[in-house]
Amino acid sequence: MTEWLDRPATLRRAALALLVANVGIVCTGGLVRLTGSGLGCPTWPQCTTDGSYVTTAAMGYHGVIEFGNRTLTFVLSVFALVALAAAWRQRRRAKGALGGAAWVLAGIAAQGVLGGITVRMALNPWTVAAHFLLSMALIAVAFLFWYRTREEPPRWTAPRAMRTAGGAVVTAVSAVVLVLGTVVTGSGPHSGDTKASRTGFDPEAVSQLHSDAVFVLVGLSLAVWFGLRALGAPLRVTRAAAILVVVELAQGVVGFVQYFTGLPWPVVILHMLGACLVWTATLNLLLALTPRQAQAESGDRDHSLASTA
User: Model's pTM, two decimal places?
Assistant: First the structure.
């Protein structure tokens, strides 16, 4: 068993599985909300008010869907523990991996607690938004963890202006798009349960604001892609920018389809998946533009934090 954990391929695959699972649980969480099963288990940590930790026949299919999503948290935790064990065994070779795995595991625990608070607050739209945004933060940590387990790419240092525009600004705008998306969700019809409250904002107005932010993001991403090509950046870097643009355009198409077709739940779930893909593509561009040495130093800091925790 220890020999298997010592293999670099094991760490890479565990990190990738953890990233995919974190994206997957966002989509299953969306299914819970879109099927009106948000209070299928009306309390937490129990599933029923009479003390059962599992769903019962009286809860119907809503209870099955909500309890199934809760169960996936334990599956995610198993992935995280395997990744943590592999990172511990390879801590001298894979700098920063141990800290990344530890932070992902801590994030999963925090996400479970926030999910329980969301249920106990009867799906208040602001706690639902916080639940989703914490998932995005967790995906960011999982992506960075996976990125650090890969083979070291060839060095290329982008000009400071490009790192600022292509890294910090695009990432910040992408984050704003995610936040505005949660406001749209909290103002729309899919509340997760008929008893859940809404933000009170005009759905059309916040949808328009969200769309405007998306247009800004696409424009910035295109500018970065053209800029990188003009600078003669390596293919892996220009490809990162191109992937982001393509994913954004695809997400935009899905967004328009869901808006003009009355928000059918399969299309909304596809849009949630798209949000995760846009976010990971943004992070991929950010890291492609970040000098490797800076990443290594950040990894050492993560390792120190994990050692003192």
Answer: 0.89
